[in-house]
Every structure is written in structure tokens, then in C-alpha cells.
Amino acid sequence: MPCKILSICLLCLGFQHCSSRECVDPLISSLYASSFLASSRYNFLYSANFAKLYGSSGWSPSPRDRQPWLQVDLGRKYRLVAIATQGTFNSYDWITKYTLLYGDRPDSWTPYIMKGGNSTLPANWNYYQEKRNVFHYSFTAKHIRLLPLAWNTENGGKIGVRLELYGCSYDSYVLQYNGDDSVVYMYPEKRSRTLQDHIAINFKTLEQDGLLLHSEGIQGDLFTLELKRGRLYLHISLGSSVIHKVDGRTTLSAGSLLDNLHWHYVTIKRYGRQVNFTVDSHTVTAICKGEFTHLDLDTQLYVGGVIEQNLPHLPTTQNFQGCLENVFINGVNIINMAKREEPEIRIPRKVKRTIIIPVTSLPMTFAGPNNYLQVPGFFRRPRMFVKFKFRSWDYTGLLMFTRFADDLGALELGLSEGQINVTIFQPGKKKLQFAAGYRLNDGYWHTVDLAARDNLLTLTIDEEEGSPLKITNPFTIRTGDRYFFGGCPKTNNTIRKCETKLNRFHGCMQHIFIDNEQLDIDIILQRQWGRYAELLLGTCGITDRCSPNPCEHEGRCIQSWDDFICLCENTGYKGEVCHMSVYKESCEAYRLSGKYWSGNYTIDPDLSGPLKPFEVYCKMKSYKAWTVILHDRVDGTKVTGSSIDRPYIGNVNYWNASWDEVTALANTSLYCEQWIDYSCYKSRLLNTPSTSPHSFGSLTSPSTSKPTVTTACSWRTLMTSCETLFG
To answer: Which ranges carry the F5/8 type C domain (predicted)?
Structure first.
């Protein structure tokens, strides 16, 4: 979808609302037969255009189709909220699982991801009952593609699909940014003062970094939305003061791997200091620092980047590159105003060029247990050049394998423990093996550039030409006629066979170059110059299962392509997601479990709740246990100059425990006490007689009375002790 700044990509599509009615219109039932496309068909009676819900037939692919798919062109962009499926009418043909892809164009896809990071949707159990899946977040698309994953095989059953999509129309206003341009919205009366805000913006990009929105005020107010390392950050300040040492800057972050060329939907809602920040289906809530409630911004708001460089709070992030859609600032449609060239919009610089994303740059996903891609190469050349990009969470996997001509050996590129391993096999000789890179399984795109000739191999990671890996051992290069990416096919052919001990690669690849020529994967596969299995073309289906972190109590999340684990060491919790506390909730619980000796113990009064464990002293008795919490007021504190108008206030800070944690302990206890020792010269404790020049006393409960005369006093509090109610 090429678009130009000020040249609107009108996909005739909408904003956040669809209409005044509910967004549940059936979208497929009224389409013409030409709107349906499939990878194959069983015969004419099972063509793609018969795949309408409650139709008289259904779609079934050819039995020889190894990767069947059904595709629907909706004709325009819609907001989609649900999908329903059935099997083929009056048959044993139905699917039980499938994956749904969606997009603006039929060669670039986004997989629908359910809660928990799973992309497999449940389907039918017979041919006639409708199975409806309601999306946990709505999304916009013009094209959808259904990929059957499992189906009924009893009684001769095969793949059979009838479907319907539900949603509503959607108007789309799009601008594409090239990194050297900006749209500036001038505030009415050259300022904006708001108690509440509602901001919405959709974007898609291939870049990890980019500035989307920025505005600031002379009083220290700030509003910035930026993309950093594929994650979205919102910086907001309702006012700061150097004199009063008030820093109002609050930062929220959400989303992950947002540089995947998929549309992402951002909503920011603020009322006073309360802020809700939503990216796709993930919402983060925060209270702004400081005591101000209004956002005071001066002059203008920058959309997509900043050309001027004289702003004091401007971040160093580069300008945004990609497409923005439906930018709404408190009900104002910024992109529509830019299209109409309204006076509130200023364009500091015209676009110099238009970015068109070629088909060959679209990614592919290796997601199956037997996935691989085989592409042709130039045979018996003395030099080898291979370049590609990949992203993955897996520690190991085969990236590329090729066998040399004339039985000279083979070369293997593999991912191992987050590094790139280069292995050269030579007949009758010991294999040569070297490693480069660090933590390359972090989910981000990484570039691998390999160049080789006789006795010299150079490997460059992420285009860091200053520190490439060079191998100068003796070996001979004569290129083979085929290259394998992601895995090796299962075959009995021993000639130029792909052989590896590495696991199959699970992740995404794009920008594959062989001998300095970029491969057009679609043309190669259409003309049968290459082969593949369990490969998704036109999409990168990587999912970040660790964002937001599913591990509780600050557990560390580690993920692979299809799973995650939580490391709970040093958190005080255990279990699959660090949910169960490893400590008892009180000293009494320790006593009942057989711990009869007094000493220091760690307790967790709310067990699996949000409060952290803390250390206490347990005074064990034969019939009960006392939980003792130490604090910083055990030693005496001398007080002088206190009066009724200006009394002395002494704060008690508990060791190893916050007030919330002490409160949780008190709430689960049968009885608690805290002693305060008090001694004064020429003063009296509360309402005691003042006949003596010295006063001594102790308090075991709170009181609002104060000494009437104070010349010199000292006081101290003893430890807090609780008798725990347990069982």
C-alpha cells in the first residue's frame, strides 16, 4: 500500500466507531464468486465460492495440496469482530483447527493471535453446527486467509469449510512517512489546556525506532509517543518545577515486536492524573507524577516526526518511517485535515520519495515440525555470497545449508545458544567450526552476510563491518545448485542431500540474497524452481509470549517459538508462573509445621498476593507463636522545643517490611501490640498529674492527647508483636 504524505491512501475504509448500531454485520454472504480464492479444489462442486455459511456445498482442497488455504477478498476494509465456520453440507468433511491471517493486501498477512499467544482457533465437530470465535480484540482488514490445521478423518472425511465474518465498515485515512517529513497540527488559540484526553493512532512499520507524536509546554508539560526497539513508549508530564524539585515526567510502555509491518492500534485515554495506554489488546494504567491535573501544551503537535530541533524535551529517536492511519486527537482527524489542507495543518517539508514495499521483501514464517525452503543457486562458481535476515526466540536451529559441487564438502549456518555457528565440512578432513554474534535469539531482526572463496570466509552480523568473522583455513569453494533454509527435507536422495544434526529453525526470514541477487520467492515457487514445506509466505508470525510478563512476582520469562517458562529463583515463589509462595504466612504457621525454635524467619502474609515476603523474628511458645517486627525507633530519641502548636512527629520505619506488608500481617493476626516508652522533664504523659518534675510512662494504644509542657523529652518504641490467628 504505497502512500505519499499529503497524497492520501484512501482505502475507503474508518475510525474507531463503525456506526451507531452494533458492529456484527455478516460480510461474506453477499460477496460474488470472484471474491473467493483457494490454493486448490477437490473438484468443481467444492470450489472456493461455495464456502458461504449455510450454503449447499462447501470448499475442499485437492488431496495433493500440502498447504491448503482459502482466501476471501472483502472488497473494502472492514473492522472484524468474529468468525464462524461450518463443515461441507451433508458430509463428513469439516475442520477441527485452523489459523486465520488478515491484511490490507493479498500478499502481506498478519496472523490473528488469541490470548496466551496461540494462533490456533478451534473449529467444528460436525458438518452442520456453527462454531463462532469472537476476537478478543477487533482488527481491520480487506483480505482474510484461512489455513486448515486439522480435520475430521473418520468415515472418509476431509477438509470442508463454510464460513462467515462479522464486523462493520471502516473509513481509513493513511499517510506514509519516509523519515524526513512531518505533519504539524496547530492548536486553536496556539495552546491546548485539557483535563482529559482521548488520542487514537494506528501505525505499521519495519523500523524498530520512530517518533510518532510530540508536543510540549513552557511549564514543563510534555506529551511524547515513540517507538524504541520495537516497543511503544508514552512519556507524559502534567508539569515540572525545578524550584520545588517536582519531576512530573511519567513513562509507560506497552507492546513488543511492533516493527513487523502489521497494523497496530493505539489508544490513550487520560482524565486528570489517571492514564490508560492501550496497544492492540494490552492496556497499561498509571497515575501521573506530581499534583497537577491539566495538560498544558503550547502552539503545536508534531505527527510522525519533528523537523525543527530547538525543542528542549525532544527525544533523540529518529523520525517515524512507515504508515500512520486515523490519527485522532480529542476528536480531531489530523490526517483528514492534512488532506483538505486546512489552515491548522502545517507541512515543514515535502516528501522527496515514496517508499514502495516490494513483494520480495515480505517475510516468511517457519513454524512447522518439518519446515524447510529449498531455492536454486548458480552451480560451480568459485565465490559464494549469501545474505538474509532472520528473527527467532529459539536457541538452536538450522539457518542455511548448501552442498558444494564436485564433492568438495558442504557449508552450514546454524543458530546455537544465540550465536551463529559456521561449519565447513570437507571430505577426509576435520570440520572447521566458528561462531559469531551474541544473543541473536532475542526476537529482533538480524542480518547475516556471508562471503566465501578459496581459503577465506567472511561473516558479518547486523552489518557491523568493523568486526566481521574471518576464516582463513585452507578449503575450496565451488558453489552447489541448491540452498536450504530453515531445515532439511525428508528424502532418500543421497546426491547433494541436505544433512544436519541441528533442529529445524522456527522463526521468520526475509531479504534472501544468493550470489548478490535477491530471491523472489513467489516466482521461484510458482515456476517450481524451488520447494518448501510448512512455510507461511507474506507474514511473520512471531509472538512475544513474555510481553506482558506472564510470570508473577518479578519472575523472569524465557521463551521459545511456541512456549515460555518462568524462572522463579530469588523471588520467594515457585510454580509454573511463580504464583505459590515458598514461605509460610506467619510464625504460627511455622510452629504448626514443626518449627519450634525461636529465630529469624521469612513470612508472606498474603501468600500468592502482590506483597513481597519479609523477614521477622519468631518467638516460639509451646502453645502459640509471636511474630516480632523490628523498626528504627528502638533506641531513644531526644526531643526539644516541642509545643502544642508545633508538636514533634516521629516516623516509625519497619525493617524489611512496608506498611502494606505490616498491615497484611495485622489483618491475619488475632492480636497485635506496640509499646512506646516516654520520659520527660517537667512534662506529663497525656492527662497524668504534673506534680513530679519527671514523668515516665508507656503507651500501648493510640491517643490524641498531648503533653502540656515540654522542655526536654525522650521517647522510644519497642518492637511490634502480633499473635497470629491461623487455621
So the answer is: 18-168
Angle at the Cα of 421 from the Cα atoms of 419 and 425, rounded to 5 degrees = 175
Residue 308 CB coordination number (10 Å): 11
Identify which of 443, 399, 439 has the alpha carbon closest to the alpha carbon of residue 208.
Answer: 443
Please write the tens of the pLDDT for every residue from 607-657. Answer: 888 888 999 999 998 888 998 888 887 777 777 766 777 777 778 888 878
d(C-alpha 206, C-alpha 176), whole Å: 12
Place of cell 469472537: 134
Mean pLDDT of 63-89: 95
Parallel/antiparallel/unpaired status of strands 274-279 and 282-287: antiparallel
Instruction: Please name the residue that has the C-alpha cell 503550547.
Output: 298
Cell 513487523 appears where?
260
For 679, what's the count of Cα atoms within 13 Å in the CB-facing half-sphere? 7
Contacts of 601 (CB under 8 A, 6+ apart): 583, 584, 587, 590, 595, 615, 616, 617, 618
Task: Yes or no: say if 80 and 98 are a contact pair by the CB < 8 Å rule.
Answer: no
Nearest to 320 by CA among 441, 180, 141: 180
Determine contact, residues 314/302, Cβ cutoff 8 Å.
Answer: no
Contact 425, 472 (CB under 8 A): no
Residue 121 and residue 204 in contact, taking contact as beta carbons nearer than 8 Å:
no
Three-state secondary-structure class, residue 336: helix
Q: Predicted confidence band at 668 (pLDDT cuts at 50, 70, 90)?
A: confident
Show the cell assigned to 151: 480435520
* DSSP assignment of 189-248: EEEEEESEEEEEEEEE-S-S-EEEEEEE-TTS-EEEEEEETTEEEEEEES--BTTTTB--
Residue in the block written with cell 510478563: 549
* Average pLDDT of every residue of the chain: 85
Distance, CA of 576 to CA of 416 (rounded, Å)? 26
Q: How far is residue 297 CA from its own chain's centroid?
A: 30
Cα–Cα distances (Å) from 273 to 236, 248, 250, 262, in that order, read 10, 10, 10, 31
DSSP 621-632: -SS-EEEEE-BT
- Asked whether 696 and 686 are in contact (CB, 8 A), the reply is no
How far is Cα 336 from Cα 173, in angstroms, rounded to an integer?
7
Residues near 668 by beta carbon (within 8 Å), at least 6 away in sequence: 585, 586, 605, 724, 725, 726
HSE at residue 688, side-chain half, CA atoms within 13 A, is 19
- CA dist 137 and 124 (Å) reads 22
CB 3 within 8 A of CB 317: no
Residues 413/519, Cβ–Cβ less than 8 Å:
no
Residue 634, number of CB atoms within 10 A of its CB: 13
β-bridge pairing 131-151 and 95-105 = antiparallel
Q: Cα dist. 151→61, 85, 160, 524 in Å?
A: 12, 13, 8, 30
